[in-house]
DNA sequence: GACAATGTAAAATGATCGTTTTACATTGAA
DNA sequence: TTCAATGTAAAACGATCATTTTACATTGTC
């Protein structure tokens, strides 16, 4: 595995498991199996490393959301939380831990959320033949965020419940 | 104002604004206007202070949710985010920042979520004359969490959208 | 075979972390 | 008036923070 990939994937799991601020650079270097000199050559800084981790996660996440129905969208989220665990949205967590004060991080968060929002709008338009309005899409988005958050303490079943709800809303808008 | 109250309210706004781990004890003592000796006499430790802050917030939040309809429930949440700001659920943020590894914090989070869940179940049962099942209540809970999370980057309007959706779901179950 | 790049290991940087301690002032009740 | 409680101010604690530096080994390439 490429050294940069190894660093980013090690950092991602540590950040996800223990939080961003609580994870120190020495733990990062140890987990990634490299010297701090090499880490800084590739990452630049801790904030930059966080941004890179989020950027990679964004790609991986959106790749999973490459579907064309609301039902499939929530099934994809269900798969995600079963594989990657349900510790909440890592983008919002990073944003919250840094108080929204780190531009690099705030920007990746905003870009990620814009990506998800676009995907949902696209799917809703597709499934309702354009009859679905922006309000419906925002309701789906809220269910999506809600499922992610609720799964933290109620488990992956919350995503299934959200899926049933979302599918029903879209059906009602299409009929 | 009581010294303990002053400490907890100063701590709450700093934690909310800058994050838990990122907020140091010196900044806390400065904002609360007291020496670190006094702070530790009242709080015991930082983790304990976080737990106390969350515990007080839990009471204040649930007091606001003393309503008897889903519409009023989401209107209460709307008021909350307009007054207190929308930086996401502070309980889930604390839980995430500590990796769920601090029992004091994990317990307050769980207790808070149980309280919200009970309240929602109560309201749903009331509004549907017992016709609403557990699934409906969980859908309302997911919309509630989703509104809180989405409001971080889309503003308080997300709560209004969630309210419309929740009211519709309850109406459909009651008819 | 020299050179630039890329890596490791480990020490040093100065700042900040959470927490405790030392020394002293104020207060209210016995 | 003395005692215990409660507060402040400030220094000290050892640990850890993110980051840089020093010294050295291993490469692939011209």
From TrEMBL, chains A, B:
Q: Name any one GO molecular function.
A: transcription cis-regulatory region binding
Give me the positions annotated for DNA binding: 24-43
SUPFAM superfamilies from the xrefs?
Homeodomain-like, Tetracyclin repressor-like, C-terminal domain
Q: Which Gene3D superfamilies match?
A: Tetracycline Repressor, domain 2
Q: Is DNA-binding one of the keywords UniProt gives this record?
A: yes
Give every HTH tetR-type domain span: 1-61
The alphabetical list of record keywords is: DNA-binding, Transcription, Transcription regulation
Checking InterPro entries in the record gives: Homeodomain-like_sf, HTH-type_TetR-like_transc_reg, HTH_TetR, Tet_transcr_reg_TetR-rel_C_sf
**Do you know which Pfam families this protein is assigned to?**
TetR_N
Keyword Transcription among record annotations: yes
What name does the UniProt record give this protein? TetR/AcrR family transcriptional regulator
State the organism named in the record: Vreelandella populi
